[in-house]
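Quick sanity check, CocE/NonD family hydrolase:
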Amino acid sequence: MLTVHPKESASMLTRDGVRLDADIYRPDAEGEFPVLLMRQPYGRAIASTVVYAHPSWYAAHGYIVVIQDVRGRGTSQGEFKLFVNEIEDGEDAVNWAADLPGSNGKVGMYGFSYQGMTQLYAAVAKPPALKTICPAMIAYDLYSDWVYEGGAFCLQTNLGWAIQLAAETARLQGDAAAHHTLYAAAQNIPLYDPVPSLNECLRKLAPNAFYHEWLEHSQPDSYWEEISPKKYLQNVDLPMFHIGGWFDTYMRGTLHLYKDFAARSAYRQQLLVGPWAHLPWSRKVGDVDFGIEALNPVDRLQVKWFDQFLKGIDRGLSQEPPVCLFEMGSNQWRKFNDWHKEHHKLYYLSSSGLASVREDEGKLTTIYAQLCPSDVIVHDPWRPVPSLGGHAALPAGSFERSHIDRRSDVLTYTTAPLESDLHFAGDVAVEVWCDADTPHHDLCAVLSEVCTDGKVYNLTQGYLHVNDMRSPLRVVLQPTCVRIAKGNALRLSLSAACFPAYPINPGTGSPMASTRLMDSQIVTLTLHCGGDRPSQVLLPVVAPSQ
């Protein structure tokens, strides 16, 4: 590794004359070096070190590293508008970075979350100097990958992020009182209202926050199309290293981007998914320690990637399978030649009609059940089923949830103890034949592992916001990669709420932002098993690792 020059600061002007500020880290060596660029809104000194190595570590590996404040953030000039200026500003930043003294003219980008999004927007403009990107935990379509899931507003994550950005705006404006109030709210996110009304802090202190617009646009209309990178990336092609986490709230976006480019790209598309939440990327996620193999390998893998595509050093990537997934349960990395899209095994739901009363009544079986009664649950908005872990709640991860499964408003269906290990990796879905006394209701599905000691740990979940009487309902769960050990069991839990990860469906069909708890209705759901309405779990079963 090389020694590194002391950090320097530099500025550039955008095409409309706005000054953007950056910190630059350089190798203390002769010659020209590729540039790694990160553009972020949280103050450039942070440099995403919550998940990545410090920029000086990358500089020591022979790269000029540029960490830039986006427009209106940090010390950069201009007005911050969420995602609005990132295409043109990103192009200008790439061109500026490529021309820095000591640059060899080749630029790569890295970063997660908003810093991942800035990579996609910069790529839209096709600046010739941008040779590769490493987007982590992003949205391809902002509506379905970031803000809404299955048509339901992602309340806890969206509200928390809106408060964080509003607090940063107050700090930059020198409004100490607003910053104090918002900081306090961020430490204890005000989720006392079961529906996402315009939270008091944001309504008073950030009236122009994007959060309000997001609530108003509850359908996938042109508003989302215009601000999503998906629309603009259809004619773009670059080698990309895609990074995600099984418990990351934006895993859907990471996978949608990877699938699209893997299907059409002329360049290598590489996918790495760890057992992590949005942050940190560590071995313990929730209640579960996934072992030493789950420690974050991303920095070393990114240097390997950048060496290949920015320095022209053959790191043997073409000889490796492009998909690398952490298998929870075996707690080891597995490599695949492609993403598993097909469902290879079905588990049917069967019951005596008491799946909401006794944990041992609802069954998951591979045998088709011809005669089974229906199960009924009653959703009371006064005492909604709480969210716990998964990808949409804070904190995220895998938690012991047997106390939730014992509620009378949760249906549970469990296999017999497995006679051999069960491995599945890829897309997971649940199809439920369901009637309701109102067309407006929600359905939450959680897949868990039931251990021999009776403890239950969530593996993956999905959520669906329903506004009609169609059936069956298809709930798409978070993709995953799991081994369930012999002797343990697989369980499906179904409920009509998962609060505060998602707002409570009032059952009235009225807009979410205008609904009060006192207007919400009690909803009765009837779930059918077997006969001509076979509710089922669809799993992408794979062979054990060799």
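Posting the structure with no commentary besides this: Residues 155-172 form the longest helix (18 residues).
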